[in-house]
Structure formats: C-alpha cells, structure tokens
Amino acid sequence: MDSAKVNTIVVTCSPGLVEYVRGEVEGLGYAIGDCHSTGLEVRGSEVDAMRLNLHLRTANNVLFLLKQFECVSPEELYREVSEVAWEEIISPDEYLSVVGKIDTAFVDNSMFANLKVKDAIVDRIAGKCGRRPDSGKERDGVVVQLYWKDRRCWLYLNTSGVKLSDRTYRKIPHSAPLRESLAAAIILATGYDGKGPLVCPMCGSGTLAIEAALIASRRAPGLLRSNYGFMHTKYFDEGEWRQMRSEALKASKGRGGKAAFRPGRIVATDIDAEAVEAARKNAATAGVGHLIEFAVCDFAETELPKGAGIIVMNPEYGLRLGDIAELEETYKRIGDFFKQKCSGYTGYIFTGNPALGKKVGLRTSRRFEFYNASIECRLLKYELYSGSKKGLDTAKRVWTVPPFYWW
Ligand SMILES: C[S@@+](CC[C@H](N)C(=O)[O-])C[C@H]1O[C@@H](n2cnc3c(N)ncnc32)[C@H](O)[C@@H]1O
Fold it and tell me: How far is the CA of 247 from the centre of ligand 1 (A)?
C-alpha cells in the first residue's frame, strides 16, 4: 500500500465555516484548489490527510479521493466500485460503513446507492481474500463515502470516520451545546490569540472556553482523539502518525517541556451550577482544565480581568430553548452589562435571533454570519469603549481574515 500516493483531498465543513477552514488549511501550507460553500480541495497523500485530521479545528471530514467516474445506473455503480482494488485498502477483519450523498435521477434513494457500493466492496474482498468485512452504520471503522451528482460519481475514503467536530472531550453536554468546530470558528472570528483575557459568561458545557484554551495553547485538536477512519485502512502508517502526534504535542504550549505556559486569563461562568460542573469536567478531559477559571454566577457578576480582553456570550435565543419575553430582558441586561462593566473589552454575542440581538441596544461594529445546524446565526461584535476610543487597541482587532496559525 502506498500512503504517499497523491490525489485530491476534500475537506468538508458546515455551512458558513469554509473561510475558517481555508485559513487553517492555508496556514498548514496547502494550496487551495476548488472551494465550495461546504468544503474545499487540496492535493495530498494519505499522510497529508492524517495531518489535516490532526490539526483542523473548523472542519468536519477529510475525504481522500479514490476514484471518479461516469455513472448512469446502480449496476454501473456496482461495476465501477468493484474495479477498485479494495483488498489492498481494507482487511476482511475490518468493519466497513458506506455513507453517501445523491443528487441524480438514476437512483431515488441514497441508502440503495450506499448498499450497492457496500456490496461491490465486500464482494470484491470476499472474492480475493475468501472472507468479507462486517458492515453497518457505525463510523468507527473504515468509512467509504459516495457523492453521486447527475452522471458523475466520486468515491472517497472518509479518513476522519466520525466528524472532526466530535473532539471527544465533551463527555457531559449541557443544554444546547455548540458544535466544537463552530465554537472554534467563533473564537477565531474574534481574533483571539491567547494573549489577552477571554471571558465566557453563560458558558454552558464550556465549549467556547475550551476551544479558546486549545487555541491559546496551540494544541492540535486531533490530539484528543484516539480513533480515525484512516487508522483502519491498509494505508495507515502508524510510525508516521506517532511522529506527527509527537511533533504536534511538542509544538503545543504547556506540554512537552513548556509546562510554565499560561495564556491570558480565561474565565468561564454560568448561572447553572450543573453546567459549570459539566464544563469543568469537559475542560479537564480536554487537558485544559488548568487554563480556565470557572465560577457559578449570573453573567453580570462575572469577574472581568484587567486589560483589553474579549468577552463572548452565547445566550439562548428562543428557537430551541428559553422563553422569548424572558430572553428579551436577558439581552437587554447583556447590553447594560457591556455598557456599564465591560469598557475596554470587545464584546461578542452569538445568537440565532436577530430580534433579540436588537434588544442589546448597542451599535454593532461587525456581524459575522454563521449557521448553527440549519439556523442562520450572527456573531455580533461590539466595541466597548471606555468613554473615548483612546487607549483601545481597536486597529488590531479589525478582522479581515482570522489570524489562524501565524504564531
Ligand atoms: C445556549 S447555552 C450556552 C451553550 C454553550 N455555548 C455550550 O456550548 O455548551 C446558554 C447558557 O446560558 C446560561 N444562562 C442563562 N441565563 C443566565 C444568566 N442570567 N447568567 C448566567 N448564565 C445564564 C444557561 O444556564 C446556559 O448554560
């Protein structure tokens, strides 16, 4: 098996995150090819796919292209898939799952197409090896991904397996947790570089604070995971992976001999003691518990460290949680808190409800567009000047492209 063979790699992401993924991928030194609303392409080998899996914070999946072909029937799909030397990629002892996205008139359901792909793979392996791999829905073994658009099919190895946004540290989710990849993108959008203070009132299960601590300590998010799709293929070069992990560990601050590292203070609070307990445990699992100061309190009582910091809040916004009338009052109180207690900071509110955002009663200096699942959301930015603009480092905070990995 040749793990150095170069082909197209597609890095997929949730809607609204592609510019963040682009920044990260470019920061890792890759030239970007085609770019779509939910993904982009680079050229690389299986080793590059491992590297992208290890380092990307805002992506969902890293797909390695195996084959693309014209296809106008399920029978043709079976035949084309059978032609791939699967016995060189998948051991009969492995577990296989096939996922797919179909946008073609030649089949009317993606499950049927997935089944054809699965049959072609296991029949080929059984023919060559005398045994066939087990298959099913779990994505914890080899994952093969089909994309069938009109008359054309693309067949990929999904080298991530389970989505990269599942970092595995969130053992205890609380109410309406943000996806880790979205939380990372929000933190990157604020321009946070780990130097100044970062405050997360309403922290819930702690996702924003934890992602910020991972960013501050330059810790590759993939270090937290022990299972990836690529580990189950015959391409997998375990020595290379160990080496890559150990380099990433050395590069992260506070590990590998840099134990004295401390970013600016990161403070996370919530009115719900259970949420804070969950956040504390999740942060410990992520290995950043020592970098975050937790407290149980109303957001308005949150202690703000001195300095021109960032305050980022994700209040409920009524679509999934919370009562609107009560939330209107909460958003108004957030505006008062920003005005009265947060001068010198840059404030951010992540919300999926523009009407509630207006209740804050302060002028936004910028609005970033995001999606939380299918809900269109905004990250609202507020410059919280202390009387005059003097003394505030606003020039550096004007965001063009997030300063991803140029540290
Ligand atoms: C949408 S959730 C935050 C989810 C979080 N971003 C995560 O990823 O887990 C909103 C949080 O605000 C908290 N909250 C609501 N009212 C609050 C208040 N007055 N003061 C502090 N926290 C409050 C809730 O307990 C809840 O944990």
Answer: 36
Q: What is the CATH number of the domain that holds 118?
A: 3.30.2130.30
Q: Looking at the structure, do residues 276 and 384 belong to the same domain, yes or no? A: yes
Q: Whose CA is nearest to atom 14 of ligand 1?
A: 202
Handedness of CA 336, 342, 347, 349 (dihedral sign): negative
Q: Which residue has the tokens 């269109």?
A: 376
Ligand 1 centre distance from Cα of residue 269 (Å): 9
Query: Which ligand 1 atom is at minimum distance from the Cα of 272?
Result: 25
List the one residue out of 379, 136, 407 whose CA is nearest residue 144: 136
The ligand 1 atom nearest the CA atom of 330: 19
Domain extent, residue 373, equals: 180-218+262-397
Spatial neighbors of 136 by CB under 8 A, at least 6 apart, are: 95, 97
The pTM for the full model equals 0.92
pLDDT digits (tens, 9 = 90+) for 342-354: 999 999 999 999 9
Question: Do 190 and 278 have their domain in common?
Answer: yes
Q: What is the CATH number of the domain that holds 339?
A: 3.40.50.150
* Alpha-carbon 275 to chain mean position: 21
Alpha-carbon separation of residue 111 from 67, 93, 101, 104, 248 (angstroms): 20, 24, 9, 13, 38
Helix 46-55 vs helix 238-251: angle between axes, to the nearest 10 degrees? 30
- For the stretch 178-205, pLDDT in tens is 999 999 999 999 999 999 999 999 999 9
